Every structure is written in C-alpha cells, then in structure tokens.
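Notebook, bench 3.
Goal today: get a predicted structure for Acyltransferase from Pontibacter populi so we can plan the truncation constructs. The sequence was checked against the plasmid map this morning, with no discrepancies at the termini. Length recorded as 382 residues. Pasting the sequence as submitted so the record is complete.
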Amino acid sequence: MEQIDKQLSFKIRLLSLVSMILVVYVHAYTLDLNGFAGALTEHKNYNTFIQDFISHGIARVATPLFFTVSGFLFFIGFKPKAAVILQKLHKRIPSLLIPFLLWSAFGIGLYYVLQLFPSITPYFPNRIIRDMSSEQLLTTLILHPIPYQLWFLRDLMMLALVATAVWLLVKYLQENFLALLAIAWFADLDFGIFVSESLLFFSVGCYLKTNPVLLAKIKANYNFLPVLFAWVGLLVFKTELSFLGYENQVVLMLLHKLAIVIGFVATWRCINTVADKTRIINRKWLFSAVSPFFIYAFHEPLLTIIKKGLLIMLYSGTEITSLLVYLFAPIVVILASIVAGEVLRRTTPCLFQVITGNRDKPTTKQEHISPKQEPILVKTQV
C-alpha cells in the first residue's frame, strides 16, 4: 500500500476540521440567499454584510477543499487496473454509501418524530413524512436527503465511478484538462450526475497526487500573508458590491469564484504554516476526540431546527437578533456535535465507526509527532 508523510496526514486532518466548521457557517444563513448576490432582502445592512462576508465569502472555500482532499486520498495507490479499481469502489461502500444511507434515514426518522407533535408540524410544510408514499420516501432517502449536506457524499460516489477516466485525462492532458473544467466551473455549468465544482476539485486532488514535484512545493512553508490579504480584500470588495445593490450576476459570479480560488490557496498556506510552526498536531483531542465527518453529517437538520427555534423564541423584529442567531447557533451545533460524537464513540464505538465510514479511529500516543521530527511514512485509509 502506498504511504504518505505522517505530517501531511495531520495537516489534511486539520484542514478537514477547519473546512467542516466553515461548512456549518455556509448553512448558518438566517436570510434567504439570492444567488451570487448574497442575502435576499429589500434592504442591505450590517447584518446582511456580515452574513454575506462569512457564509458567502470566507466559508465557500470549504467544499473545494473537501473535494480536493477526497480526490488526493482516492488516487493514492491508484492504477488503471481492474483489481485496483474494484478495490477502490469496494472501499467506498463502507466509507460513503453506508454512511449516506444511514444519515439520510436518520433525517427522515428525526422529521417523522418531530412531526408527531401538532405544534411543531406547521414548521415542516414541504416534507410531511407520514404522508409520503413509498416512492417519495425512497426519493427522499437517495436523491433528496433531508440532511441536504449529503449531496457531497452522493457526488463523491458518482466521481468514484468515473475515477478511471479522471485519472487518464489528468495524466495525459494535465493542466489542459483542469483548464477545461475550470472554464465549465466559472461558466456555472453542471454535468448532471455531479456538479462542475466537485469534478474540478476532485480532479485537482488527482493532479496533486500524480505530480509529486508540485506536491513537494505546496508542502513548503511560504509566507501566507500576501495571499491572505488578497483574499480578504477581494471578499470585502465583492461583499460591498452586493451591499450596494450591484446586479450584474456574471461579474458577481466571477468575483465569487475567483475569491474561492485565492481562498483555496490562502487556507492551505495558513494551515501549513500553523502546523509547521506550532505544536498543534500534538493536541490529542484535535485528532481523537473531534470528528470532522461526524460534525458534517450531524449538523443538519439540527442547525436548521435550532435556528428556527431561536428566531421564534427571540424574535424582536431587529437585525441584531437575526445576526446573533446566525453567529451563535453554529457554535451551539458544533459543540453539540463534538459532545454527541464523543458519547457515541465511547458508548457504541462500532456504531460510531459505521456512521463515520471508519474515518475517525482513536489516535494513539505513538502517532503524535513534533513538527521538528523527520517525516514518518504511515498507511493512510483512502
């Protein structure tokens, strides 16, 4: 089995955790979203600016980062041979398919239980579980899960099926293939079975894995401040355009995606620098007690329920209430996810491993390393 540098493995873990926190804030909007123009509201104010800047700006790098990491890990040890391809697909069953079905079923069950209470039912106008036919339940389970963030797993499963074609195209077309995918992404085109964003960044992960020289360069420690300032500055500019009511969706889309590209680089450089210059990778709780995948799967529909509940209880018709719910509901959900995940890990470890796709096994003391240590090679689950 091919091996990767242990320190790189820890950086990927830290990157996944940071990205997962950002995903929660992507879903934290307390306002309707108006495409690339940000929050949908008649009047823009400090509330819409902050929510747009965070959820429609900073946090939007999370999904590309996830797909890149997934693509990189998928193509470790990959060869266009039947035995290798079948092995890779077989591993996707416990790591993707089973968690997808279990968490989707959990969402259906949770809604069904909540809808047993007449006072709560009106807050679920579009999905009354008890009124669904068998066909509708199956569609909800597989195609339109209640925990809507599961689309990421669904796309990954589809990408696994076309991974050989991706590998061949990346190997022989190199940057030309990525350029074509980037054009499709900037043009906001989709491919039916998965979105252009997922294919592009999954392919970027493949490209990084098949180009060890480039991988060595991105592992090098560069000054992250210039690209970080460029990213934040572009996000401020883009958010300000939306705040002023700028209506050209094409320009807003291009700025939005350019910011994602710059943010993609900035986030990695920040993570790389923090991991190399601190001892954060020795923090046992960070790698054994916190499960990025559990936060990902557990945070919705819990976040939506908590947001609705807080807005109902605290509503005063002011923007400050909306903003406070936006800022603090994700924190409550993240902490609840960490606690619930740790309880399950300790009380029902087998169940925890199944629902997290065997991603979050406890880390032993021997696995912790100092940034000053020489790289150690370890087997990595893909």
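Strands lie at 3-5, 32-33, 39-40, 377-379. The first strand starts at residue 3 and ends at 5.
Flagging this for group meeting.
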